[in-house]
Amino acid sequence: MTAYAPPQTKMDVLFADEFAVVIDKPSGLLSVPGRGEDKADCALSRVQGDFPDALTVHRLDMATSGLLLFARSKEAQRALSGQFARGEVSKRYIADVWGAPATASGEINLPLITDWPRRPLQKVDWEIGKPSITRYEIVSASSRFARLELTPLTGRSHQLRVHLAEIGHPILGDDFYAHAQALAARPRLALHAASLEFVHPSSGAKVKIESRCPFDPS
C-alpha cells in the first residue's frame, strides 16, 4: 500500500461566515483523519487551523478534488447534514472518462453496497444494494475520452466511480475501478466536485459555490 503523502498546497477558502466554510480540497488529501497518526493531516484539520470550530458535514474521496462544506456550530451541522440526508443539496461534478456514452445525456440507476471482502470497494447488488442514481451529460468528447458533467441524486460511497465503471466508461486515473489503460491515462483521479448549492443554515438563502476544474480535458 502506498504511504499517505498529502499535497502541501494551500487550500482555497471559497466561502466563510460564522455558520459555514467551503474550501477547495486538493486531490490526495483526506477529508477527515484516517487511522493512525500518519493520516492526521486532512481537510478538517487544516480548516480548523483557521476556523477551530469547524465540523464535518460531508466528505469527498481522498483522490477527488473540489468543494467541501464544513459547519461552524452543532446547530449548523445538524441543519446542513439534514439537507444532504434529504437530498436537498445540489452537487455537480466534472469527470473525464474512458470512451463516451452512447447518448449525450442519461441516467445511471444501479444499486450499490459495500464489497465487504474488498473494503473500501463498492459493488452493484440488485438484491440488497441501496438505490443509487447518477445523471450525466457529455460536455465534450475526443476519439478516446469524454468529459462528463455528473449530478448524483443519491450520495453513496464511490457512487460516481462505480456507476461509470459499470457502464464501461471508468473515470481516468481511478486506481480502484478503472482498467489498466484508463488508469494510466491520468496521474490522478479525474473527478472534481465543481458546484455545490445549499440553503444557508441561518438566513435560509440559497448559497451556490463553484470551483474551476483543475485538470484539462484530454
Observed structural traits:
Pseudouridine synthase; 218 residues; ten-stranded mixed sheet; alpha+beta
Task: Describe this protein's structure.
By secondary structure, this protein is α+β, with helices and mostly antiparallel strands. It has two domains: 12-88, Pseudouridine synthase, CATH 3.30.2350.10; 92-191, 2-Layer Sandwich (Pseudouridine synthase). The protein is built from four helices and twelve strands; from the N terminus they run ββαββαββββββααββ. It has helices spanning 43-50, 74-85, 159-166, 180-184, and strands spanning 12-16, 20-25, 55-56, 65-71, 90-98, 105-109, 112-114, 122-124, 133-141, 145-152, 191-199, 206-210. Strands 1, 2, 3, 4, 5, 6, 9, 10, 11 and 12 form a ten-stranded mixed sheet that branches. A two-stranded antiparallel ribbon has the order 7-8. Strand 1 (12-16) and strand 2 (20-25) form a beta hairpin.
Q: Round the Cα radius of gyration to an integer and report it.
A: 17 Å
Q: What is the percent of helical residues? A: 10-25%
Number of helices: 4
Share in β-strands: 25-35%
CATH class of the largest domain: Alpha Beta
Sketch the topology as an H/E string, one letter per element.
Answer: EEHEEHEEEEEEHHEE
Q: What CATH architecture of the largest domain do you see? A: 2-Layer Sandwich
Distance between the termini: 29 Å
Categorize the overall geometry: globular
Ranges where pLDDT stays below 50 over 5 or more residues in a row are none
